[in-house]
Amino acid sequence: MKVVGFAGFSGSGKTTLVEQLIPELRLRGLRVSVVKHAHHSFDIDHPGKDTYRHREAGAFEVVAASDKRLMLVREFEQPATLSVHHLLAELYQGVDWVLVEGFKDSDLLKIEVWRAPEPGQVAKPVRYPEDDFVVAVATDAPQGLPVPTQLPLLDLNSPAQVVDWLLQYEHRFDYNWDLHGGLVPCAPQ
């Protein structure tokens, strides 16, 4: 599988870009998964549903499946901090690309998403000068970047261009199994 991260401040357009990349990759015959970092308690299950009732009764894991969907909900008995690598290990191995939103401090190769500030607002800082894992910048204003860079600049408003770039350099985003059956990230190149 290929894995690429997307990092940037809230409001920069990460979710919108990832959302637009999914159908663009699918049009090219590729299977796509997404890993999203959630900052706070969240729930995809709802009161009154059988799965919610099972979880509320104390089940550690609840799996629900139909002929179209599978859902796994795991309740941690103690607060747990999972790395992006733990989450990648949970994914189906037959996927072609995994788009990771968030996990800005991870050791995954990532595209930084930076949007020009609205008039009267201050520009958000950038990560790429200090983060060796940022391999490109997706932006709507390359001339407005607060720090000059030699990194590839991708048009934030052109998901097709971003996918073209990803596919051109896809070998850099390989995410491989190690000899012990776990996943290991590829180093930056």
Describe what is shown at a glance:
This protein is an alpha/beta fold and 189 residues long. It has helices at 14-27, 50-56, 84-89, 159-168; strands spanning 2-7, 32-36, 61-65, 70-74, 97-101, 110-114, 134-139, 153-155, 175-177, 183-185.
Question: Could you explain how this protein is built, in words?
Answer:
By secondary structure, the chain is α/β, with parallel strands linked by helices. The protein is 20% helix and 24% strand. It has four helices and ten strands. The strands form three sheets. Strands 2-5-1-6-7-8 form a six-stranded parallel beta sheet. α1 crosses α4. The radius of gyration is 18 Å and the shape is globular. The model has no long low-confidence stretch (mean pLDDT 88). This is Molybdopterin-guanine dinucleotide biosynthesis protein B. InterPro entries: MGD_biosynthesis_adapter, MobB_dom, P-loop_NTPase. Pfam families: MobB.
